[in-house]
Amino acid sequence: MATVMNRMDDTDNSNHGAANDRSADDGGADGAYRPDADEPFMSLRQQAYFRRKLQAWKEAILRESQETLSQLQVDSLREADLTDRASSETDWSIELRTRDRQRKLVSKIESAIRRIDEGEYGYCEVTGEPISLARLEARPIATMTVEAQERHERHEKVSRED
Length: 162
Prior knowledge:
single chain; mainly alpha; Four Helix Bundle (Hemerythrin (Met), subunit A); 6 helices; about 65% helix; about 0% strand
């Protein structure tokens, strides 16, 4: 009976099984864990996997952003020629637009992490259906199934044409 209870805790989608599912924190001893359709959807292990993936993505964006901005500041100080300075300012402008898009992406990543905390991650915000693991692997910030996203985009297109 205790074995059955432990297995139930291991597959529980809530945090109640965390103490029994030691792999929930590390995604597996070898770090090569990949979510599988054969396991319960959004198990603790899958949640931990996507949380790590999202956090690593966010950290990489922030690190790259900081490095780029630092480099642009150094480069702009070196430009004595007006033409070179104008070119640097154009580069700076493009980079700032890119950083703004990345800031919005970081916000979506943080929202996805919040959805993991709230137990809503991986489920379509429109239909409530599970979002495929393949879609979440490709776009971990996805909030809709492919079908719901396509309907949403068709509706937006019709709305714009009016």
